[in-house]
Amino acid sequence: MGIQFTVLSSGSTGNATVITDGQVTLMIDAGFSARRIDELLGMRDLTGDQLTGILITHEHSDHIKGLGAVARKYNLPVYANEKTWEAMNRSVGKLADDQRIIFGTGEARDFGSLRVESFAISHDAAEPVGYVFQDGKHKLSVVTDLGYASDKVKETIVDSDVLVLEANHDIEMLRMGRYPWNTKRRILGDMGHLSNEASGEALSELLNGRLRRTYLAHLSREHNMLDLAKLSVRGAMEDRGCFYKDSEFKLCETYYDRPTPWDKVGEP
């Protein structure tokens, strides 16, 4: 079957993604109520009891809002590094000891045919991470909530077949928006969120013959738009001499209110 995935929903108000190899089905983050997560799963013909476990990137509410309720309802193990566990303990509530699993930053674990590696990113959380999924043939990388794409991050996610990458905001929309300046400064900083332009800059270094699709994720509803994000990312790539044909590489959308279609990693 290979690696298949769907971004159930992504944005400033909540995030969750599902990855499966047909035997193991993992969810990254649970940033919605348990009821909403069930609804989103149902839109892709899934139920919570089909999940194998939940991987957590960091403790902010748009990534763990429904975590405790979903984990208890379906008796799911939850994987996070030690500092993230410490930061989210109170929010998650009571879980059995065998549901609380330490997945250290930089560690790799095997889940069925999937080898999952976590890697450090820059964000104002306890110890935020992204994840890489490989099955021996193909590679999917998921990285959002990062203030900048460091050389180490780019080294980790290079040669992905498919990438889920943050394109959070348009810089001018954010600067002109209603947020107070301290919030704007946080978002724009190295511990904040990746702008459309920064996402395009990173992609200009990552695009090679293997990378076929990038899903632009975690878009701000206040300070971004889907069409603007795709236009700005492509423009930033072209400004750096990175031109491509749509038949060779595609920028794909994610949505705050519905899942993306199932995507099989490795297919054209």
Automatic annotation (TrEMBL):
Q: Which UniProt keywords apply?
A: Hydrolase
Q: Which reaction does it catalyse?
A: 3',5'-cyclic CMP + H2O = CMP + H(+); 3',5'-cyclic UMP + H2O = UMP + H(+)
Source organism: Paenibacillus zeisoli
**Lineage of the species this protein comes from:** Bacteria, Bacillati, Bacillota, Bacilli, Bacillales
Protein name, per record: MBL fold metallo-hydrolase
Please name the SMART domains in this protein's record.
Lactamase_B
- One matching Pfam family is Lactamase_B_2
Its biological purpose is as follows: Counteracts the endogenous Pycsar antiviral defense system. Phosphodiesterase that enables metal-dependent hydrolysis of host cyclic nucleotide Pycsar defense signals such as cCMP and cUMP.
- Keyword Thylakoid listed? The answer is no
Which PANTHER family has this protein been placed in? EXODEOXYRIBONUCLEASE WALJ (PTHR47619:SF1), METALLO-HYDROLASE YYCJ-RELATED (PTHR47619)
Q: In terms of domain of life, where is this protein from?
A: Bacteria
A GO MF annotation of the entry reads: hydrolase activity
Q: Which SUPFAM superfamilies match?
A: Metallo-hydrolase/oxidoreductase
Domain Metallo-beta-lactamase per the UniProt entry, residue ranges? 13-218
Extract the Gene3D superfamilies matched here. Answer: Ribonuclease Z/Hydroxyacylglutathione hydrolase-like
- What InterPro entries does its record include? Metallo-B-lactamas, RibonucZ/Hydroxyglut_hydro, WalJ/YycJ-like
